[in-house]
Amino acid sequence: MSDGLVHITAGDLHIEVSGTVEDVEERIAELQEEGTWSMVLDHLRQARESALEAAADAIGKAGLPQRGAAFRQLIAGSDLDRRPEQVLAAIHYLREVEGEHDSPPRMISRLFEDAGIESPGNISLYINRLRDRGFLEIPESGGGKNRYVVLTPAGRAYLDEQSG
Fold it and tell me: CATH for 67-163, among 1.20.1290.10, 3.40.50.150, 1.10.10.10, 1.10.238.10?
């Protein structure tokens, strides 16, 4: 019976290592020294990039809105004129529409840029103010970091009220 197992297939590269945890760690170290591990990681990166490009192409061909256009439409279609409200909407968009649970301020800023909307600037400040108002909270699993912030029921209700 094995304590550890690593099985990776990346293109035409196949790696399978099993045995005790120590055996697996030793074999992975050997693969790193040989450069095989780097090749596998490169294949995985290339496959990921190809998948992302294919998804973007499919979205474009299907006529679905690009990320920035969808967020811009959300802001324009709502009564969200103030920066704190827009940051709240951006967090909601990233978590609920894109499924991002790790959304640091730079990602929020990038969403504004993608939408062609001027970034609010100090997003951490807005996040703290929204937390003070009870619209956001950081789950225990987030370790107190604002990048894992989630909307509270009050925050959702506020967005619903503003966009309704």
Answer: 1.10.10.10
